[in-house]
Amino acid sequence: MSLAHSLICGCLMRESTEDTARFLEYPGIGLVEWRLDALHGIHTRNGLDEALAGLSLPGRHPVIATVRPERFRGGFRGTEEARIRALERTVRAGAEWIDLEDDLPEDVLSPFRDSAARVVISHHDFDGTPASDPLKHRVEHLATLGAHVLKIATYARTVEDNLRVLELIPFARKQFGAETIAFCMGPTGRWSRLACLLMGSPWTYVRFPELPASAPGQFTVAQMQTLLEIVGAG
Question: Which residues catalyse the reaction?
């Protein structure tokens, strides 16, 4: 695998577990974010167990397990307790990474930090992009939560919104020693999904061509591969 391909994380947004192996082993990427909240069976134990069997595939990519709640425009409609239990079972099944929202209380975050999985703490703003100071305060808050990687995604309404978000990557590294993924969603923010890699983000999120995007503005796998080749990354 080339360095450029290792920077690409494919977002698996699928209601069915059929043909899961093809996406977990998809060529030309380095990771898969599995949006388990998109599964029809996520709200039943058997349905989740059927999906998690895919984590036993020997040749799969590392997986970032995500069960996004409705409050962050995700598909999980059960109780918060049930959602946390689903995440715990995902870690026990062998997911290498877990994505957790930054509004979770410490007593929920702590067991995940102590688990075998690495933790991404994420913050999403689907309405817009705050000013620079509130964004930096948000990074400071995320950095206190003990994650391996921080993630901030806001919705861009102007080109300048992207610049404020992208500057969080070197800011977090310099101030807190934190690896950070920071980009903007939406058509105006699309280019930041490439630029974040050039600024030092460990990976960026793309969609599989056959599947829906997990957030507005995502490139396909092939599009991001081409862009990385054009700019000479990796």
Answer: 124, 151
Per-residue pLDDT of the chain in tens (234 residues, 90 and over written 9): 567 789 999 999 998 888 899 999 999 999 999 999 998 877 776 788 888 999 999 999 999 999 999 988 888 989 999 999 999 999 999 999 999 999 999 999 999 999 999 999 999 999 999 999 999 999 999 999 999 999 999 999 999 999 999 999 999 999 999 999 999 999 999 999 999 999 999 999 999 999 989 999 999 999 999 999 999 875
Q: Binding residue per annotation — 89?
A: no
Q: Which residue among the candidates 5, 61, 123, 124 is catalytic per the annotation?
A: 124
Q: Is 123 a catalytic residue?
A: no
For residues 93 and 150, what is the distance between their CA atoms, to the nearest angstrom? 23
Q: Is 214 annotated in some ligand binding site?
A: yes
Give this prediction's pTM.
0.94
Determine if residue 207 is labeled as part of a ligand binding site. Answer: no
Is 174 annotated in the active site?
no
Q: Which domains does the chain have, with CATH numbers?
A: 3-231 (3.20.20.70)
Among candidate residues 93, 45, 47, 90, the one with its CA nearest the CA of residue 66: 90
CA 121 to chain centroid: 9
